[in-house]
Amino acid sequence: MTQEILIRRPDDWHLHLRDGAMLQGILPETARHFARAIIMPNLVPPVVTGEQAAAYRDRILAALPKGMTFTPLMTLYLTEGTDPADVAAAAESGLVKAVKLYPAGATTNSHSGVRDLDKVMPVLEKMAEIGLPLCTHGEVTTAEVDIFDREAVFIDTVLDPLRCRLPELRVVMEHITTEEGATYAAEGGPNLGATITTHHLIINRNHILVGGIKPHYYCLPVAKREKHRLALRRAATSGKSCYFLGTDSAPHVDALKEHACGCAGCFTATNTMALLAHVFEEDSALDKLEAFASLNGPAFYGLPVNDEKIRLVKHELAQTFPEKIITEAGPVTVFNPGYPVHWAVEA
Ligand code: NCD
Ligand code: ZN
Q1: Of 221, 225, 190, 220, whose CA–CA distance to 207 is shortest?
Q2: Which among 282, 271, 251, 283 has a CA at the least distance from the CA of 321?
Q3: Domain count, the chain
Q4: What residues have their beta carbon closer than 5 A to ion ligand 2?
């Protein structure tokens, strides 16, 4: 029996679009389903100033195929040299919707990130004053801290002290991967939100490591134990306003994923909505999918929800998705959940 649901067109509150040939190749994968996305600034070199963000936005719009509508919501990459006045001007003009904190060394292209939070307090104070959200890559980078503990330690040693110091600062805990992250977000009040990726609702660390290493399941923050995946499922499907979709779809060409030192990132733009329908149906929560993908994010960012709708249809036959997106930069493998998916987005 076919089943279908209609939801408001979704947005992606954490997305990597890259630049050049990669941007050209993968942008349609997002724009096909999503109206808007918060665009991560970790290019090489990073998007630090308002001027750089405006130029990047123009490159994204130029890469958008005719007939597609998509609005990139730009972010600035926080460095210890960021000028509070430049951030405020970029926010006031409507160009920039958030600032991204990467602890130096935490993930792909994060070496220009922040080593000492004291150095960026004037920027954070300005953001608190004007209501501009800080998106955090919430992992400590200390060598002594185990990679599976880095998110929980970040919450205790960085995020919570920062929020006590500056309670008015609006913060998005990006791509939470732990029960601790989900709990902290739920208890944080209206100034705190959390994005959850599609893949962290599907894989745990066994999927990466059992039966041979699976580079296309490796991302940062790395997937944790099963109990954490289940906590994320409960959070995403709860409908609670603090949780919203940020796919963290992060393309790398296969040659760099299937490598002795493989890049972190799962590419989920192509099949995210179908996978989410599968996940939410499995948890008897299809009625909460719209809140997670289309309503809670705009509410946190103070933006209107989208007027258009998308239709998700469950077919009797398993649906096929492209195994790879072929770009001029090279092939990019699409996230494979490892089970048949019967849902598809229909025009
Ligand atoms: C992202 C990337 O490739 O830019 N990788 C990832 O594993 N998520 C960076 C990030 O968001 O951490
Ligand atoms: Zn990311």
Answers
A1: 225
A2: 271
A3: 1
A4: 248
Give the tens place of pLDDT for each residue, 212-235: 999 999 999 999 999 999 999 999
pLDDT for 139? 96
State the CATH number of the domain containing residue 272. Answer: 3.20.20.140
Q: What is the pTM of this model?
A: 0.98
Is the CB of 248 inside a 6 Å radius of any atom of ligand 1? yes
| Test site for ligand 1: of 16, 266, 332, most ligand atoms within 8 A of the Cβ | 16
pLDDT for position 110: 86
Q: Is 276 in the pocket of ligand 1 (CB under 6 A)?
A: no
pLDDT computed for residue 1 by the predictor? 60
The ligand with the least distance to the CA atom of 38 is 2
pLDDT for residue 157: 97
* CA distances for 325 relative to 27, 340, 346, angstroms: 11, 19, 20
Dist CA 306 CA 303 (whole Å): 9
| Ligand of minimum distance to the alpha carbon of 108 | 1
Residue tagged active-site, from 248, 254, 287, 307:
248
* Any ligand 1 atom below 6 A from CB of 75: no
Does residue 197 line the site of ligand 1, with CB under 6 A?
no
pLDDT score of 106: 81
Helix (H, G, I), strand (E, B) or coil at 253: coil
The answer to whether the CB of 12 falls within 8 A of the CB of 247 is yes
Q: Ligand 1 pocket, 72 CB below 6 A?
A: no
Instruction: Give the residue among 233, 238, 160 at the shortest CA–CA distance from 200.
Output: 233
Locus of tokens 């492209």:
322
Band (pLDDT 50/70/90 cuts) for residue 50 is very high
Atom of ligand 1 nearest to the CA of 219: 7
Question: Which range marks the domain in which residue 196 is found?
Answer: 3-346
The alpha carbon of 298 and the centre of ligand 1 are apart by a number of angstroms equal to 23
Report how far ligand 2's centroid is from the alpha carbon of 146 (Å).
20
The reported pLDDT for the residue numbered 70 is: 98
